[in-house]
């Protein structure tokens, strides 16, 4: 039996009957209702899976010394996806890009899917049919749902979204993540995609469900509370219900078997729910929904009884100030962001799962955490990865050290702190509204400057000791100890030192970065070194990059005569291939003065990184 009576027009809902294969599947539902997300390293949906759980046991960087950067020329305000060897990015202007997740090289770029000003709807990947589903405002015929071939980027089909009357075209903004609901059956017809629309502050939006196979409409319902759906993604419950929040402060559960609302709960008329819901089952018929509200400024936990399709009286909430962050729940903890660019109260919060009360710590970064945390559990320790939505937006990794949130690292992009004019507005190019995806020891995310980054966990090969005035490509050549390697992973005032032992030599340290990106695809190399140099006659340090064509080190920047820790930078923007040989980029930091008598020359590195820009 397949879907029956798919669409009944003229009402706010449609008739839907699920196939018998689902009845068999429901009997097998256990506590962990997790989507089949393809390969383990994939991140195929918003917050990784259909339940919006947001955590993984995949490794992620514990320090970032190397990153690739792809300039997509349009703001990136949605979370990326990772599918196999590629990372999928939906940029403003409604264009999808597929990049190799290791090299950053463009695999394909879709056609323009729409004309909407903003792209705030994270697409989704259909694991059963290798298809990306994306919604665009102002598409082929109004707001449009597209199915895109994930391997080649060509369109498979598109459908015009129709309002519940069946004839009027939907023109609202599709501002929620798209959910691909895999019902764990062998029938593709049982897979669906879900999303909601927003039509302004005081206009009703509609939630839609479509067949993932061919775009046939299955269900839709317009809000009865004169507001719509903004970042309010849905989660499926026990292959029967869909739950989602609303800008009017209502939480809705839809029974897909009867095509009706099974329950609706007001959490406060002014409590605008602008996060997705995270479904956490505790057994086969019961669990909890976690979400945040923007205006009411609360983190919420509400029980749901799947045997009756109703919300229960078991609920908890805690004032965490402004939040649009979808909570991530693991290990008895709730990780959630707070603040926006104007309200303050910016923090990554760690709360108790049992009653969402404040746990021992809150970490305050440099700006609002509107992103949803991605948590990597490594050797039993949770690390939260997130971004900040501010002029100086950055990537962050914070370690949950039980009683405190300890900064593991932060990473400033090349756009951090920069602006451009758009009419009367200054656009913050470094702002990072949405969060990250994790896969195979990499973290991925973009910013409003249109740059997308892949951050690697790879440490460069490092060597130290002393060099003469004309060092070669392999000088110096004494490899760092494991302890010194650990010191250059992050900027934390723990420095790796090299000292001369003979007159007329400079203390120096060399860093070999091995990159997998083809040389022809590298258009720029950006270098950052943090450290200090000391010698009695002249303190300070200089930064160099090796030019394989000329056969010598090319000067990038010097600190001047200072014993203090400094940050030196340099960028190669033309003939980048001259600085790459057999996949290696060689960087050298050198103290400014030679050893003179007993006055030794010393160089100390706290942190070093290379960013390559790729096409």
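Sequence proposed for the structure above (615 residues):
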């Amino acid at each position: 039996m397949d879907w029956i009576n798919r669409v009944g027009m003229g009402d706010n809902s449609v008739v839907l009957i699920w196939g018998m294969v689902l009845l068999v599947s429901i009997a097998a539902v256990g506590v962990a209702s997790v989507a089949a997300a393809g390969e383990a390293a994939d991140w195929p949906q918003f917050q990784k899976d259909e339940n919006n759980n947001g955590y993984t046991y995949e490794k992620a960087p514990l320090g970032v010394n190397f990153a690739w950067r792809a300039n997509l020329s349009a703001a990136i305000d949605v979370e990326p996806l990772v599918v196999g060897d590629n990372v999928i990015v939906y940029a403003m202007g409604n264009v999808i890009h597929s990049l190799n997740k290791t090299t950053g090289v463009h695999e394909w770029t879709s056609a323009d899917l729409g004309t909407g000003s903003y792209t705030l709807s994270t697409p989704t990947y259909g694991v059963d049919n290798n298809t990306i589903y994306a919604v665009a405002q102002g598409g082929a015929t109004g707001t449009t749902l597209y199915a895109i071939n994930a391997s080649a980027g060509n369109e498979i089909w598109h459908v015009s979204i129709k309002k519940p009357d069946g004839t009027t075209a939907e023109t609202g903004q599709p501002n929620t993540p798209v959910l691909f609901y895999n019902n764990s059956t062998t029938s593709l017809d049982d897979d669906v995609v879900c999303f909601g629309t927003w039509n302004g502050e005081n206009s009703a939006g509609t939630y839609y469900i479509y067949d993932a196979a061919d775009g046939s409409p299955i269900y839709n319902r317009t809000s009865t509370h004169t507001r719509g759906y903004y970042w309010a993604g849905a989660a499926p419950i026990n292959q029967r219900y869909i739950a989602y929040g609303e800008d009017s402060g209502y939480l809705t559960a839809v029974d897909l078997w009867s095509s009706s609302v099974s329950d609706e709960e007001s959490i406060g008329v002014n409590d605008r729910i602008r996060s997705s819901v995270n479904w956490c089952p505790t057994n086969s018929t019961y669990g909890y929904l976690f979400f945040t509200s923007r205006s009411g400024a609360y983190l919420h936990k509400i029980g749901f009884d799947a045997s009756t399709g109703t919300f229960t009286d078991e609920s908890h909430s805690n004032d965490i100030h402004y939040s649009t962050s979808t909570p991530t729940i693991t290990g008895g903890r709730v990780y959630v962001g707070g603040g926006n660019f104007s309200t303050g109260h910016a923090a990554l919060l760690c709360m108790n799962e049992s009653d969402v009360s404040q746990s021992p710590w809150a970490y305050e970064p440099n700006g609002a955490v509107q992103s949803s945390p991605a948590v990597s559990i490594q050797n039993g320790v949770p690390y939260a990865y997130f971004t900040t939505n501010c002029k100086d937006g950055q990537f962050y990794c914070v370690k949950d050290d039980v009683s405190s949130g300890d900064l593991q690292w932060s990473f400033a992009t090349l756009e951090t702190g920069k602006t451009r004019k758009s009419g009367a507005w200054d656009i913050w190019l470094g702002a990072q509204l949405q969060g990250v995806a994790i896969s195979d020891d990499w973290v991925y995310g973009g910013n409003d400057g249109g740059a997308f980054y892949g951050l690697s966990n790879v440490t460069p090969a490092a060597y130290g000791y002393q060099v003469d005035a004309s060092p070669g490509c392999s000088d110096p050549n004494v490899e760092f100890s494991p302890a010194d390697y650990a010191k250059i992973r992050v900027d934390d005032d723990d420095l790796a030192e090299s000292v001369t032992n003979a007159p007329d030599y400079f203390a120096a340290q060399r860093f070999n970065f091995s990159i997998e990106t083809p040389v022809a695809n590298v258009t720029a190399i950006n270098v950052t070194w943090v450290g200090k140099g000391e010698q009695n006659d002249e303190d300070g340090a200089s930064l160099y990059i090796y030019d394989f064509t000329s056969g010598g080190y090319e000067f990038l920047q010097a600190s001047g005569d200072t014993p203090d820790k400094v940050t030196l930078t340099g960028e190669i923007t033309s003939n980048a291939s001259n600085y790459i040989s057999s996949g290696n980029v060689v960087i050298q930091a050198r103290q400014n003065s030679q050893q003179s008598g007993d006055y030794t020359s010393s160089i100390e590195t706290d942190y070093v990184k290379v960013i390559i820009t790729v096409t």
